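Q: I have two molecules that I believe assemble together. Could you output structure tokens for the complex as a whole instead of separate predictions?
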Amino acid sequence: VSSSAGTADLADLVAAARSGSPRAVGRLISLVEDAGAGGGQAQLRELAATLAPYTGRARVVGLTGSPGVGKSTTTSALVTALRADDRRVGVLAVDPSSPFSGGALLGDRVRMSEHATDPGVFIRSMATRGHLGGLATATPQALRVLDAAGCDVILVETVGVGQSEVEVVAMADTTVVLLAPGMGDGVQAAKAGILEIADLFVVNKADRDGAEATVRELQHMMSLERRERGGPSWRPPVVRTVAARGEGVDELVGALDRHRDWLVEHGREREGPRRRARAEVEAIAVASLRERIGDLSGHASLPRLAERVVDGELDPSAAADEVLAEIAG
Amino acid sequence: VSSSAGTADLADLVAAARSGSPRAVGRLISLVEDAGAGGGQAQLRELAATLAPYTGRARVVGLTGSPGVGKSTTTSALVTALRADDRRVGVLAVDPSSPFSGGALLGDRVRMSEHATDPGVFIRSMATRGHLGGLATATPQALRVLDAAGCDVILVETVGVGQSEVEVVAMADTTVVLLAPGMGDGVQAAKAGILEIADLFVVNKADRDGAEATVRELQHMMSLERRERGGPSWRPPVVRTVAARGEGVDELVGALDRHRDWLVEHGREREGPRRRARAEVEAIAVASLRERIGDLSGHASLPRLAERVVDGELDPSAAADEVLAEIAG
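A: Yes, here they are, computed for all two components at once.
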């Protein structure tokens, strides 16, 4: 897929995406990823401006949890349930894949293959591209693309550890934290910093030994936890699922809708869009500044300065000043 | 712990750290963390300049792997083995803990408590502080602090998923990837993007069922993988350990030393220091730029602009331009 497009092409692509072309949606997200990875800031800006009028309708649901809890399976089951309800669905699988090999793995796609031919579903894996902040930059824009393509619900699937992933989750309207029995003790869960961000818990593989213990442990931890997000009056429900067999998935959809209703009732439905807009504006601004630094890497100034730091000829701050002076110059 | 210090204090703190005061080391790393989280760039720069002459000797070993593989236990066992060899050891536990509650959890410290009173060991947990790039900024500086404090070896323990963690691992001279039997299939491991970065594999809990299958799967994946780092002639060994009982830990130390020797023999021992210096210079430069944006968040310009983006009055790029104009102004 080519990663550059002229202005006319961009308008055409956006029009095609709005009419439901998966290929156009895919290309637009590729553009966003490449821009987020350091190139094409001008294009990113143009794309943001072109998409903005057509967006603001989609609801973003974040799904997070440790590897092995069944995120992809649950996401896939949710897609099935939402499609049965005739909702248009986008899936953004945010993969902390290698910064060396780049790209997304086949795994997710295989698990998602049952939806591959459904024109009401857009599925996309995003890689982090090994660039500091690349994910945080690309995600709000990719959400805009899927929003403009007419998605009612966008499911964002991330691995629930790591700073960038938490930032991605913070862009959702509703955040679902998945757990499974026997995947590690409570301390491990708390370590991943996911308890405070959950609007809803799913204990998947609920037919396995230890499921009820996991539910109880969650409820115990919630009783201890002071919650920052969601306010004092929303208490995250715990939904039991066996996603591989579709069990509990309708209940999960119900709980998602109740959280949405609660947000609306309490006049808080703009919080998610606000967080996304803020993340997006900040990301574009930071990316612009960073691009100037990134340009330097290409010019071998940074390696040369680093070499002098290793040799003790220059202290790191002085080297950073030289970098900044070159950017300003 | 206070997070600011005058110039005289800084020199005193560095002197105290060099004479082996754990309290001084701890305070310096706190300073670094706070600077990395957005405040005190001037101090970060001064600290970097003050520390630089006393550093360049420590060897950095990164340990990474999914939650539950036994990273903390292995790190602790490695500390024991390195101390038996009379090497001064630093431990930096990089925790993807909550951006909301901040701070590190007690868990690691409890596991590390046997070393708490050993004056030849410095242990520090670092939190990500919920700031984009905070970890990447703080880690090279924290390594400098431990280096200046006379550590022969610094063990950096991270969770092996997430972009920031991979960036942290890239700062090591030698990267150890830990696995355990039954912690998820090979696809999950590859997803975490850790296979390509390993100089050395540890299959921990090697007394459990499935350990040999994990070893075989690793060897199979290595035979398929084209490696970018480490060059074609270093083949990562697979070490079996039962860290909780100290089994295989001497072999692990031996393998670490062999990798070090190999780097020296091939004239590649400066690669790690170069990567750290480059990360450090880039981080200080990026942090300086970012601080200007961070200042805006405090001024409510960003929320106001985000609100206008949500209302469709402003496109995200135009809002980013306003942010950048305010920074320049």
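A: One point stands out. Chain B has a mean pLDDT of 78.
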